[in-house]
Amino acid sequence: MKVKNWMVSNPITISPDKTVEDALQVMKLNSIRHLPIVEGETLKGLVTESSLRAYLSPEKQKLPLREVMIINPIVIDPEASIDEAARLIYKYKIGGLPVVSNGKLTGIITVTDILEAFIELMGILKASSRIDVVPYQDNLDDVLEEIRSLGGKIISIGMDITINGEKVYFIRLEKMPLEVLASQLANRGHKVVSFIE
């Protein structure tokens, strides 16, 4: 999944000559928290709701954005993966990234956009079923084969390691009854932790 498929294209922008007050008004009017600062199509900086908190007094609101903007903000390429965008946002504890290609601003991607992408990937909002399994001898392929043999269609797979060191796989499927599957997996030596139809 690429950033370009989940970013907000043609984001709202502002000129570095505009004031803090102008930026605050644009952000409030458009219900946004990240405002790229551009000259032409070239990204010059970024202001955010939190970065402008230090400039809320009436005299500071008259300052031009070029004096208060974040220079050289963390950016991402539109061809980068959503995973990379999520890593950058987590690493730098920021809420969004300008998307830049060849120095030109092409979009912005925020935590909300990334969450939407992961929800879509995980199939969380689709009508689905889930079965949690500890595969016998860590043979996940056998579990997946059994699911497919019963007509199950896999949406996503997650994994966690228990305190005992067991790998538990959380397998989300298109909606289907799971009692027969759970029984067959158990008969093949797999440990079915739980299932939700």
Mean model confidence by pLDDT: 93
Number of domains: 2
What shape does the CA trace take?
A: elongated
Beta-strand portion reads 25-35%
Gyration radius (Cα, Å) is 23 Å
Largest sheet: 4 strands, antiparallel
CATH topology of the largest domain: CBS-domain
CATH architecture of the largest domain: Roll
Q: What structural class should be given to the helix and strand makeup?
A: alpha+beta
In sequence order, what are the helices and strands, one letter per element? EHEEEHEEHEHEEHE
Count of DSSP H/I helices: 5
The CATH homologous superfamily of the largest domain corresponds to: CBS-domain
CATH class of the largest domain: Alpha Beta
Number of distinct beta strands:
10
End-to-end C-alpha gap: 28 Å
Roughly what percent helix?
A: 25-40%
Parts with pLDDT < 50 across at least 5 consecutive residues: none
Strand arrangement, major sheet: 8-9-7-10
